[in-house]
Design a protein that fits this description.
The protein is of the alpha+beta class. 44% of the residues lie in helices and 14% in strands. Strands 1-2-3 form a three-stranded mixed sheet, with no helix packed on it.
């Protein structure tokens, strides 16, 4: 594994756990098990869990001085951190149904394939990546139709389902994407 290789070479291991909770639900493995090889782990409460803002860096006590030094270098302590902590705690206690978000992403991927989009991989979590000829132009057209997507590069687009989207929103997204399908070119060829 990458962590074993890093250990052999005396390198620390960091896990960007921005979507750690999604990975735990998708794999059926506890969060602690997924990040066990890491020296440091960052998590984001606004991705997946739906908090308005908030991230956390977790580390072994042996890394404390390094973490504090880096925090000071990046701007010091944060005022009113308790308000952010309260939002993060609420997100942890009132976890959204991440499995539902994953199922909606799978349904969206299936709908995209049905109307001719190239979907290289089935989504593992709540993110669907599909291909078109001109991703920036497609994203702009989708935005005009009221659907926010993200261009990953010139051809790939990412759509993300989350707790604030319901079945009606998913149906509307499918409708918009079906209408735009002829404009996407033949990315599946």
């Amino acid at each position: 594994s990458a962590a074993a290789w890093a250990r052999e070479h005396g390198l620390p291991v960091h896990v960007d756990g921005a979507r750690l909770w999604n990975a735990a639900v998708a794999t059926g493995r506890p969060e602690a098990e997924l990040v066990a090889p890491a020296d440091t782990v960052s998590v984001c409460f606004s991705k997946g869990l739906g908090a308005p803002v908030g991230s956390l860096l977790a580390f072994a006590s042996t890394r404390r001085e390094d973490a504090l030094r880096l925090r000071r270098r990046m701007g010091g302590s944060l005022r009113q951190a308790g308000v952010l902590a309260a939002a993060a705690l609420h997100a942890l206690r009132d976890r959204p149904d991440l499995a539902r978000d994953h199922a909606r992403a799978a349904a969206l991927a299936s709908a995209l394939r049905e109307v001719g989009y190239a979907v290289p991989r089935a989504p593992e979590t709540n993110m669907v990546v599909f291909e078109v000829d001109d991703a920036p132009a497609f994203v702009a057209a989708a935005e005009q139709a009221g659907l926010r997507l993200g261009a990953l590069d010139g051809r790939r687009i990412r759509a993300v389902t989350h707790r604030d989207l319901g079945d009606a929103d998913l149906a509307r997204a499918r409708d918009v994407l079906a209408r735009l399908a002829p404009a996407c070119g033949d990315a599946s060829a």
